[in-house]
Amino acid sequence: MEERIQVKCRYDDEMMHIQCVSEKVNRGREYGMAVKMRTTSDVSMWLREQTPTLRSAASGGEPTYTPCQIYQYPNKECQIFIPGTPHNHPQGFVGNLHVLSEKVKSLLGFAAEAGFLEQAQGEPYSTTVEEQGFDLGTGDEE
User: Fold this and answer.
1) For residues 133 and 32, what is the distance between their CA atoms, to the nearest angstrom?
2) Which residues contact 62 (CB under 8 A, 6 or more apart)?
3) CA atoms within 13 A on the CB side of 130
4) What is the DSSP letter of 39?
5) Rounded distance, CA 61 to CA 70, Å?
6) Out of 47-56, 68-77, 84-93, 127-136, which region has the weakest mean confidence (pLDDT)?
7) pTM of the model
8) Is 31 exposed, middle or buried (0-12, 13-18, 19+ CB in 10 A)?
9) Which of 47, 35, 40 is nearest to 10 (CA)?
């Protein structure tokens, strides 16, 4: 099993479905954990345009997911990066992850325990594009 974090390309509008696949850590799933987080409709639309390359850790089948990374900066802020066609980053999408959300706390806790948090240097990525101002997971509704 390849350890990874992946996000579903085609999912509910304004929601992200993230799977964390780990051999050594699991939280409610045999393969690791899954979490649903709020996003914006433009991010949902962008995700639908990405080419899925990874299979579901739960059901296998045809690829329905794309890889993503979580970066933690020296100031302890975290961001998710999803490589793909340019969105709010030249190489894909970047979103802020705030620990006020229980789902984000759970995701970050799992990522830290499984060794998925990538330490980044400098300041968190930002852009002058206004949509960068939104934060993933600020609402815990499903």
Assistant:
1) 30
2) 52, 55
3) 0
4) -
5) 25
6) 127-136
7) 0.88
8) middle
9) 47
